[in-house]
Design goal:
The complex is a heterodimer of chains A (225) and B (514).
Chain A lengths: L12 H36 L7 H13 L2 H6 L15 H32 L7 E4 L2 E4 L1 H26 L11 H9 L4 H15 L4 H14 L1
Antiparallel strand pairs in A: 1-2
Chain B lengths: L3 H17 L4 H16 L2 H16 L6 H14 L2 H12 L6 H14 L5 H18 L4 H11 L11 H8 L4 H7 L1 H16 L14 H25 L14 H7 L8 H20 L4 H19 L4 H40 L1 H11 L4 H18 L2 H18 L1 H4 L6 H23 L7 H10 L3 H24 L2 H10 L1 H7 L10
The chains are: A mainly alpha (225), B mainly alpha (514).
Chain lengths: 225, 514
């Protein structure tokens, strides 16, 4: 089995399951984003129609869902921003050791946050449910506390998978984007072969092969004519 | 027991160490902030800050504007607005000295009005404009440098997200902040264009694809483009303008061959005007609040995407929208995770009394207020060279902003109230700080936009870093102008905010904003 849309190397079933959970959570996040757009449009149209409707609570809550449900997928896609100016000068072996440090720290931090978020969700639900005041009166806030806590579960699973991969000396998901994948993403080309060929031509030319140079010069000449 | 001062230094050192070993920025800031609070206060306080600050910043009505603006930009990219803007600009600037460069900068300006992601702007403009500029003899540094710098400028205006984050963390009204950057952005682009047409143009033509590396790059790009076009012709029956990969069509080449302005893709300009009118016009007219304008901007952008890419069919359009939403979700989570970490770290500064300590220290220097503020702002330049911009914004603003607020009446002595002076100061220094963030986005060694330009254009990052230097000088001149004449940043806000207007023009009888 392989991770969906990420890489072709075989990965254990459990890892694939976690990635699919992250993907489902990401779909929840996209649904929440879409719902925010709809809620805003609805509220404006209702206001213009003379029947104002306050969406403050629901939109704020949906942002909680959009933010936390997407965390796992963001990590799977390797989009957590980090500074690599130092580590890119270090050897592969040192970098793999650093992965272990990074994801150990991240696991402890997210486990701490997960425990605290569930603790807070429980204490804000029983015995007195937490409420907030919006434009139409009291609105329940406690469901969004649970949305926050539950959305953290896929995130911690992905962080733990990264930790396991680091222990097993495999590259974590913060570091899987291969250069050709990056270029293909930038260029919007789905067919990696065409990108590979283009880059191969560049490397051939750098090595002194003449064909791409000739092609470019020929085209240049044609343009001048 | 360790004293607070030692804890502060240890925590700051730990933060830089974690950043240096590639710990994701959100984790690095959150972990060190939590450890710092744990040491200066207690584990209970640390847990409370972690959970409450994280939740409260996610449960934020104002911050909903961030995913909305991201969505606008991602829809706009897929609607190929940048390509059309470049094609139109290239036609009208083709006879100017450095015309291609001027066209690229103008197109970046147009694209800035619809895309909040500077990285998307740089990546798109690099692949559209740099190969053509290289073919016309632009030095690699000049071509990539101007794209890297021009791509950053849009963060000052909607749908840029920095301006929103600044407004939220400083409790500044969002509406005036959203329009405050328009004139500074216009001045910046004017500065770049003047440089390209004068000094930059002298460097063009002496570097006409001499090296095998340059020739190979052009050949490689053309090879990829030809593959894409061939695939598009095969898939879409010869119409290369309706594929997912359509942005690779050579816009400038098309413009050069276009003899009449009638053949230009004017609908692309119309798209820019529509999205900008919905976002900016909605705020100015009072039809929408800033957050609502962002949501309506997303609706306008998706309608444009449907119109522009209608030949893809329902399935193709669904995929475009789905991918845009997934990208938005991923980027939103990434941005918010950094915000959460930064907020925890800045709370540590508050608990440890760092902000107050710095304020007390700089006050004892007895510097003239303008000199003091200039000094604090200049300190951001070296910091911006090593810290990611979002972190820099979230770490530096809680320190600089309170100091500036304390001096607000010195900066704006004519403001009728202290609150008015503070509002003017907040908007003004917000623009200055975010303009400095822009500079950091291209400066070595962590200037992400320069790396993106280098990566997409396949040139060495050192070449890009050299190429940006003249533009950095232009940015510094613009910063000095904005510093000396705050009205340039405050006049437009006075048109949308009664509070700003009455603070700026205390003698005016009736404010124009409602």
């Amino acid at each position: 089995m392989s991770a969906p849309g990420l890489r072709d190397d075989p990965i254990p079933v459990i890892e694939n399951v976690v990635i699919w959970i992250a993907a489902v959570a990401a779909m929840v996040a996209t649904g929440a984003t879409l719902a925010i757009v709809v809620a805003f449009v609805w509220s404006v149209v209702a206001r213009w129609a003379g029947a104002p409707f306050d969406v403050t609570n629901i939109v704020s809550g949906l942002l909680v869902l959009a933010t936390f449900a997407g965390m796992a997928w963001t990590t799977v896609r390797g989009e957590q921003v980090s500074v690599q100016v130092v580590t890119e000068r270090l050897s592969e072996k040192v970098n793999r050791s650093l992965d272990l440090v990074i994801w150990s720290l991240a696991s402890v931090y997210i486990l701490w946050l997960l425990w605290a978020s569930f603790d807070r969700a429980i204490s804000r639900t029983w015995p007195v449910p937490e409420m907030t005041i919006d434009g139409v009166g009291m609105a329940p806030m406690w469901p969004w506390r649970w949305a926050f806590a539950i959305s953290m579960i896929p995130f911690i699973l992905v962080v733990l998978i990264n930790l396991v991969r680091s222990i097993m000396r495999r590259r974590p998901y913060d570091d899987v984007m291969e250069f050709e994948e990056l270029v293909s993403k930038e260029l919007g080309v789905e067919d990696l072969d065409s990108v590979g060929e283009g880059l191969q031509m560049a490397s051939l030319a750098e090595a002194g092969e003449s064909s791409p140079v000739d092609a470019a010069e020929q085209q240049n000449g044609e343009e001048q004519r | 027991m360790i004293d607070t001062g030692t804890v502060v230094w240890i925590t700051i050192a730990l933060m830089f160490l974690l950043l240096a070993i590639r710990v994701p920025i959100g984790f690095a800031l959150g972990i060190t902030g939590a450890i710092g609070i744990l040491l200066v206060k207690s584990p209970t306080v640390a847990v409370s800050v972690m959970v409450n600050e994280t939740f409260q910043n996610a449960y934020s009505f104002t911050l909903t504007i961030i995913p909305m603006f991201l969505l606008v930009g991602l829809f706009a990219v897929r609607a190929r607005i940048a390509e059309y803007a470049l094609e139109i600009a290239a036609f009208f600037t083709r006879r100017l000295p450095g015309g291609l460069g001027v066209a690229a900068v103008i197109a970046a300006a147009g694209f800035s009005a619809v895309s909040g992601s500077s990285i998307a702007k740089v990546a798109t403009m690099s692949k559209l404009a740099v190969p053509e500029m290289r073919r016309h003899g632009y030095p690699a540094g000049l071509a990539t440098g101007m794209i890297a710098v021009a791509g950053t400028v849009g963060v000052l205006i909607p749908p840029g997200t920095f301006i929103i984050i600044y407004a939220v963390i400083t409790n500044t009204s969002v509406a005036p902040m959203l329009v405050a950057g328009l004139i500074p952005v216009a001045i910046s682009f004017l500065g770049y264009i003047i440089y390209i047409m004068t000094l930059g143009a002298r460097r063009i033509g002496f570097d006409k694809l001499k090296s095998p590396e340059d020739l190979a790059f052009v050949a490689a790009m053309e090879s990829v483009q030809e593959d894409v076009r061939a695939k598009a012709r095969k898939d879409m029956g010869g119409d290369t303008r309706v594929t997912d990969t359509g942005t690779l069509t050579t816009s400038i080449g098309l413009a050069a061959k276009t003899r009449s302005w009638r053949n230009l893709p004017w609908h692309g300009l119309l798209y820019v005007v529509i999205i900008a009118a919905v976002i900016i016009g909605g705020i100015f007219s009072g039809l929408f609040t800033p957050t609502e304008s962002a949501a309506f901007g997303a609706v306008a952008a998706v309608i444009i995407l449907f119109v522009e890419r209608r030949k893809l069919g329902p399935k193709g359009l669904f995929l475009q929208v789905r991918d845009s939403l997934l990208d938005t979700a991923a980027t939103t989570s990434m941005v918010f995770f950094i915000i959460f970490g930064s907020v925890i770290f800045s709370k540590f500064f508050v608990h440890a009394g760092v902000t107050q300590g710095i304020r007390d220290t700089v006050t004892t220097w007895g510097l003239e207020p303008h000199v003091l503020l200039a000094f604090l702002l200049i300190c951001l330049i070296p910091l911006g060279m090593f810290l990611e911009e979002m972190s820099l914004l979230l770490i530096s603003v809680p320190i600089i902003h309170p100091i500036a607020m304390g001096l607000a009446t010195e900066f704006f002595p004519n403001a009728p109230t202290t609150a008015g002076a503070e509002l003017l100061t907040s908007v003004w220094i917000g623009i200055l700080i975010i303009k400095l963030m822009e500079v950091g986005m291209v400066m070595p060694p962590v200037g992400i936009n320069s790396f993106v330009a280098a990566g997409v254009a396949r040139v060495r990052s050192g070449t890009v870093f050299l190429g940006i230097m003249p533009f950095i000088v232009v940015d510094m001149i613009v910063l000095v102008i904005l510093y000396l004449w705050p009205e340039l940043s405050l006049w437009l806000p006075s048109l949308v905010s009664d509070a700003v207007h009455s603070a700026m023009f205390p003698d005016a009888l009736t404010p124009p904003a409602s």
